[in-house]
C-alpha cells in the first residue's frame, strides 16, 4: 500500500489510501489529523525565580509530625476502647441470658419436685386407682416356688446333664 512521505520523512496521513485507514473512519466527515499537530501546552525548564513562597521551618514540620503521631495513637487507643466496650456489652448480654436460663431451670426443677412428691403420695395413688376402677385386694396368698432345676457349669454355660440330675433328685 503506497503511503505519501512528507518533507521530514514522516507519514503524511492526509494523503493515505482509504484501505489503510481504520474501518470506523470510512465515510467520516472528520478532518484528517496531521502528524505535525502542536500540543496545547509547552514545558519550560527552569527554577522558581521568586522567593515569595515561604517554606515551613524544620521545627514546624517536626511539631506537625508529632501532632499526627499523637493523633494516630489517640485514634488507636479509642479503637481499642470501643472494641473492649463492645466485648464487655456482649459478655454482659451473655451473662444475663445464662442467668435467666439458670433461673428457668431451677423453677422447672422445683415444679418437677412438687409433681414427684404429689405422684408418690399414697393417698393420691389410691384416689387415682379408684378413678380407674381398681379396688384394694380382699386377701393375699403366697406362692412358694420349687428351687430352680436349671444348672450351670463352671464357665456359666447351661448343663443339661446337671439339670436332669437336679430333676431326678426332686422326685
Which key terms come to mind for this protein?
49% helix; elongated; 3 helices; 171 residues
Structure description:
With 171 residues, this protein is mainly alpha-helical. It contains three helices and two strands; from the N terminus they run H-H-E-E-H. The protein is elongated, with a radius of gyration of 54 Å. It starts with 57 loop residues before the first helix and ends with a helix.
Q: How do the strands and helices of this protein lay out in sequence?
A:
Layout: H1 58-119, H2 122-131, E1 151-152, E2 158-159, H3 160-170
Antiparallel strand pairs: 1-2
Summarize this structure briefly.
This protein is mainly α. The chain has helices spanning 58-119, 122-131, 160-170; strands spanning 151-152, 158-159. A two-stranded antiparallel ribbon has the order 1-2.
Evaluate the radius of gyration: 54 Å
What is the SS-derived class? mainly alpha
Shape: elongated
Number of strands: 2
Distinct helical segment count: 3
